[in-house]
């Protein structure tokens, strides 16, 4: 195994351990919420449990996707497998959205039934404990996801924090019912939690679609242009056809460099390699940079397939 493959294997194992922990916690909290929902009969707690069911399914899918994302390129996948990360985050968003719709439906059903809420104290304790655990787990997943540049971990972290919001809605609902005596607070808070989940789910699906469609990050583009402007100026060069995309954990960048006709090929290659290295340093470890060298006399002789 090459040093690069060993590094990727270590990163994959590190993130897989975090995802396994997330899955174990999700299952334990699901059981606790189901028990709390059965004891109290609260639609808000039921909505929290329903969201946790989709969360368990999404985490299981994300754990599989994370391992596949770090699989090396092969004969049929020349650019690797890391785009599966966007499929995973989109699936997680779809699961959150499905839970949100289920929550709103059940809240309406419970409001019409007007059933009493029992054992609110036990329900609040279980829900509060679940919220505290998810808050710690969610922030940890987001931190590791940003550090490792992993859409899978970031999406899972956002899903866990969305679970925290539903738990907070449950606590608020039960407290309002306790102090006001009006049962209607329970479905109202459930609907509000469902709305927040629907927004989170839509945002994850939107980001996933953007990644699958190779949507460019305009902030990264400005950084790249600033770097190329500064790197080309001392050598009297220009550039065009800058393209970049992010495939999950890998940045792909390509551009054309235009040299004076009299530039020696070896010198041009040395300058281009140095610029490629600066681009790689700007974007991090998982970067693929390709430059195309052109003489100035042929700068405008671009083929149609080169234009964007």
From TrEMBL:
It is a multi-pass membrane protein. InterPro entries: Cation_efflux, Cation_efflux_CTD, Cation_efflux_CTD_sf, Cation_efflux_TM, Cation_efflux_TMD_sf, CDF_Transporter. Its main location: membrane. Residues 234-295 form the Cation efflux protein cytoplasmic domain. The chain crosses the membrane at residues 21-46, 52-70, 82-105, 117-139, 160-179. It is found in: Membrane. Residues 20-213 form the Cation efflux protein transmembrane domain. Keywords: Membrane, Transmembrane, Transmembrane helix, Transport. Pfam families: Cation_efflux, ZT_dimer. It comes from the Bacteria. Belongs to the cation diffusion facilitator (CDF) transporter (TC 2.A.4) family. NCBIfam families: CDF (TIGR01297). This is Cation diffusion facilitator family transporter. It comes from Luteolibacter arcticus. The lineage of its organism: Bacteria, Pseudomonadati, Verrucomicrobiota, Verrucomicrobiia, Verrucomicrobiales.
């Amino acid at each position: 195994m090459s040093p690069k493959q060993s590094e990727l294997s270590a990163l994959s194992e590190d993130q897989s351990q975090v995802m396994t922990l997330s899955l174990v916690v999700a299952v334990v909290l699901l059981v606790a919420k189901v028990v709390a929902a059965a004891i109290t009969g609260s639609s808000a707690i039921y909505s929290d449990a329903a969201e946790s069911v989709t969360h368990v399914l999404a985490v299981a899918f994300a754990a599989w996707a994370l391992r596949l994302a770090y699989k090396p390129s092969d004969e049929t996948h020349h650019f690797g497998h890391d785009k599966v990360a966007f499929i995973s985050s989109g699936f997680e968003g779809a699961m959150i959205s499905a839970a949100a719709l289920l929550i709103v439906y059940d809240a309406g059903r419970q409001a019409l039934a007007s059933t009493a809420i029992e054992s609110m104290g036990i329900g609040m304790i279980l829900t509060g404990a679940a919220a505290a655990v998810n808050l710690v787990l969610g922030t940890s997943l987001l931190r590791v996801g940003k550090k490792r540049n992993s859409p899978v971990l970031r999406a899972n972290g956002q899903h866990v924090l969305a679970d925290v919001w539903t738990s907070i809605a449950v606590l608020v609902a039960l407290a309002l019912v306790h102090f006001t005596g009006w049962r209607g607070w329970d479905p109202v808070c459930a609907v509000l939690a469902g709305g927040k989940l629907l927004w989170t789910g839509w945002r994850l699906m939107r980001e996933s679609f953007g990644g699958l469609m190779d949507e460019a990050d305009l902030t990264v583009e400005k950084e790249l242009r600033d770097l190329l402007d500064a790197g080309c100026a001392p050598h009297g060069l220009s550039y065009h056809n800058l393209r970049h995309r992010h495939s999950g954990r890998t940045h792909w960048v390509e551009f054309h460099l235009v040299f004076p006709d009299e530039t020696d090929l070896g010198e041009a290659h040395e300058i281009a390699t140095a610029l490629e290295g600066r681009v790689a340093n700007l974007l991090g470890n998982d970067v693929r940079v390709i430059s195309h060298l052109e003489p100035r006399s042929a700068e405008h002789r671009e083929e149609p397939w080169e234009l964007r």
